[in-house]
Amino acid sequence: ILGGLLRLRGVLSLHASVVHLRERAVLLIGERRAGKSTIAAALAQRGHAILSDDVAAVTPDTGAGWLVHAGYPRLRLRPDAFHATAPVDAGPVMTGQDKRYVALSSRPDARAWRFHRGPLPVSGVFELRRDPERVAPTVERVRGADRLALLLGHTRAALAPLDPAAQARELKALSRFGEDVKMSRVCYPNGLEHTAAICSAIVSEAPSASP
Question: In what helix (H) or strand (E) does residue 21 lie, and over which residues does it extend?
């Protein structure tokens, strides 16, 4: 609902987890069950703060290029990822579901599972893609028209149809966003045993400044 409302208000709203890396933020996008929250949780366990899970609200900024705004101090994890990272349990997401909420701390001195309250400049977008034929994670740059197509595929659904003028503005903004930030694709094999290597690849490739 929140993602749809943001689009109606003219805010770029992407289905993504957002992580604080190198004084900026990166967005983790991917298809359902690609591992967005799982990788975000693994990065949080390693000391990288979380801004948002599930919804990334992105706005243009004159000085910073693009800002992504903080959501709420929780992550949602499936049982396997939850037990693998052993975070603070904040209860079930919904009755009848097996996902659990993870509580994030707003204390700046917390060494893990931190929540970053304020907005941050966006330096990059990582698409997470499972590939059972891979033996190890690989990272490749997303270029050209593929950048806009990728963003369009991971835009949150609007609660009501956008009028033609709003659609045109959103398309223009998504195109600019895709040109302004580094976009990469992380392909990796199935299995939680690859989580550490995926995190290392993302941290290594994360830009320290917007390109």
Answer: strand 16-21
Structure token digits, residue 167:
């659609």
pLDDT greater than 50 at residue 27: yes
Residue with token string 């003219």: 10
* Structure tokens given for 19: 């992580």
Region of residue 56 (phi > 0: left; psi between -120 and 50: alpha; otherwise: beta): beta
H or E stretch covering 197 = helix 195-205
Q: Residue 117 is encoded by which pair of tokens?
A: 């309250």
Q: Phi, psi at residue 21, to the nearest 5°?
A: -135, 125
Supply the mean pLDDT for the chain: 90
Q: How many whole angstroms separate alpha carbon 87 and alpha carbon 75?
A: 10
- According to the model, what pLDDT value does residue 211 have? 46
- Residue-wise over 117-144: b if at least 16 C-beta within 10 A, else e? eebbbbbbbbbbbbeeeeeebeeeebee
Question: Could you tell me which residues come within 8 angstroms of residue 196 by beta carbon, excluding any fewer than 6 positions away?
Answer: 42
Q: What is the pLDDT of residues 52-79, one digit of tens each?
A: 998 999 999 988 899 999 999 999 888 7
Listing DSSP states for 33-82 in one string gives: TSSHHHHHHHHHHTTPPEEESS-EEEEEETTTEEEEE---SEEEE-HHHH
Whose CA is closest to 17, among 50, 48, 42, 59?
50
